[in-house]
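Researcher: Last one for today. Full complex below.
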Amino acid sequence: MKEAEIVASFQRLFARQAPGLVQGIGDDCAVIRAGRATWLVTTDSQVEGVHFRRETTTPRRLGRKCLAVNLSDIAAMGGRPRYAFLSLGLPPDLPRVFLTSLRRGLREEAERYGVALAGGDTHRSPGGISLGLTVIGEAGSRIAYRSGARPGDALFVSGFLGQAAAGLKLSTEPNNPVGGLSPAYRRELVAAHQCPRPQVELGQFLVRRGYARAMIDLSDGLASDLGHLCRAGGVGARVYSESLPLSPALRAAAPLWGSSPEEMALQGGEDYQLLWAVPPALQESLPAQVKRHFGLVLFRIGEIIPQKRVLLKTSGRSRLLRFRGYDHFAAQA
Amino acid sequence: MKEAEIVASFQRLFARQAPGLVQGIGDDCAVIRAGRATWLVTTDSQVEGVHFRRETTTPRRLGRKCLAVNLSDIAAMGGRPRYAFLSLGLPPDLPRVFLTSLRRGLREEAERYGVALAGGDTHRSPGGISLGLTVIGEAGSRIAYRSGARPGDALFVSGFLGQAAAGLKLSTEPNNPVGGLSPAYRRELVAAHQCPRPQVELGQFLVRRGYARAMIDLSDGLASDLGHLCRAGGVGARVYSESLPLSPALRAAAPLWGSSPEEMALQGGEDYQLLWAVPPALQESLPAQVKRHFGLVLFRIGEIIPQKRVLLKTSGRSRLLRFRGYDHFAAQA
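Model: Here's the assembly. Have a good evening.
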């Protein structure tokens, strides 16, 4: 069975409706109402041999990343992360210094984003390191779901795309032709994969100010996640090749694999940038507002259309954008 | 490193205090206040080769148990389980019928206890099946912590002990001398290990009525968990050998391994019964109340004493009760 099939079979198991459950499975977080508070809950794991290899990352980065990918889900709904619960599976042979660095990474990431590690369990894991995190966040008075996009909305992303996919290639392909890549570019791309920065404050800002009518974090890749956003909203999208945010590092690296940087930006996963839909009246003011508050340059990559398809427009010609979901059951980290 | 050492090193990582965090790591659940609601959160995993073997249990029982062990933590604080989040790691080669039965077990357990499966993630797990659950429960106006026991309190448990340890032996030791054991006893003991029944309703009743001043669920074994209860409360305990709840099945099985049933009841883990401390004024009325509401016979096994030690009294003679915590890093399931 393919992951998509397995996931679908387990999704039928999940509750669509239950008292207090505003949103079950199917968005970046579950949404739960408790009295006047609204909570966001997300679960994600990093498993050795599937999501990472011990030889190609550092335990400190691993500690940070396992928390970061969950914080990114909270960010995608505009929430404030509050509490984290860690399920830690460890092989019996891990050196003490590895555990010390892993703890350091977890602590750094938790402190940086104001998250309290509030519980967890530790168990032996013969198959390799397994880091399961559940993060509870607090929603403000507004929440951005995947489903809110409307035709005419502009699509924005919060940073460069394809970086993490290139970084993964660089760190795991022993014979890749990286001779032509500067050490600085190499470091930048590898860090993008191993050390993603969840856009937590930006997510809160966008939702609070009404700038994000629908939002998702880019974990599977732009093509795939934009597909999720469109399906959830019953809409489609048009993306402009020329507007894809491509870093100089990616432009230098992609040709080394015979890839185009545009293709890597569209298909590459794990960038953990935000993708969101902005209503017409706010499209002009948004970039300057974000520049002022966060010193961050946004990228406007396209718009929502009523036709239920995702199109890529290149030099005036449109084509249907196909995407491959990242299949953990087929692919190797 | 031993599990205790690893767990201790990670416990230092966890937040003792954070806004809204009433209880961090160190009890059966974390306790979080959100407005007027108080939530209980617990995380526990079932990992192939550590907590179970695929050959010796059924996928349906596995599905039930991975939820049950978490519900038991909610029960131990008197809470009502509400939402579950599943992190599911699957090897690529699992037959479809296995997944169907696993889902069935999860669904049955969730429905039985009124829990909504509200989210999760699915990933490939090359080392074997891994079932990580985080359960959120709702606390009533009272909560039973581990720390509330006072000298003079009576110690009660909710059912037979040592059953699960005997069941584990029966299901995993291929050459065990079970010839002398009736099939019914064998089934009873194996079911106790593979199909524990979390005492959710009893836990709520005990806490709501003030019957449980301190409580813990028996996952590591009576000796070990009573040690946790005493340490948390700054007290000690005296347990009477003659009062240990031993089933006829355990009495029949223990001698086959050259063990005493008392020793198995004291040291065996995973019974998932409740252990709690009852204030003096309520000790007389409790058993009849529980019999009336739940048709359940309780066992009074000893009492809390001011001296910080755990004593076992057998035929009038006391000895210090030693315990081995179950070490997942040393032991094999």
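Chain B has ten helices and 13 strands. Chain B touches chain A through 70 residues (CB under 8 Å).
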